[in-house]
Amino acid sequence: MAGGPVLAAGPAVRLSAQGARVLYYGDVQASVESADGAAHRVRVRVQTPAGLQAPDPAELAVPPAGPVTATLRVWRSSAARGTRQPLVVIAEPIDGEGGPAVSQQVFAVILPEPSWMPRLRRPLGVIALLLMATAALLELRRGRGTRSGTSGKGNA
What we know:
By secondary structure, the chain is of the alpha+beta class. It has 1 helix and 9 strands; from the N terminus they run E-E-E-E-E-E-E-E-E-H.
C-alpha cells in the first residue's frame, strides 16, 4: 500500500452572516459563495438558543462565482427582552461532494418592550397599594370614632 498523507477536504463554500435585531422577529442575512470555483447546493440554517426559534432553513444554488444571499427569520418566543443572544449560522452542502459544513456565530439583540404600559406596572402597583393602605387606615379611624361615640348614647 503506497500512500501519502490523507488531506482533509476544505470547505466548498464561504459563509458570512449578519446578526439580527429582534422585537417579535428579526432577519439574519447570510451570504454564501463558492470557495472552490464550482457550483453547489447548500442548506443554510440558524441554530438558536432556548427562547428563540428559526424554523425555516433556506436552500440555495451557489454559482461558481459570486455570492448568494439568504434571509433567515428568527422568532422570539421566551427570550428575555433587552438581552443579546448567540446564534450560529450553518451552511451545509446538500450535494454529494460538497465538503464539510461551515458556520459563523452572530448575535440577536432582543429589543425591549415597545409599549409603555409594562414599564408602568410597578409604579402603578405601588400607587394602588398606597391608596388601599390609606383607605384601610381611614376606615379604622372612622370605625373607632363611631364605636366610642355610640356606646355612651345607648346607656343614657
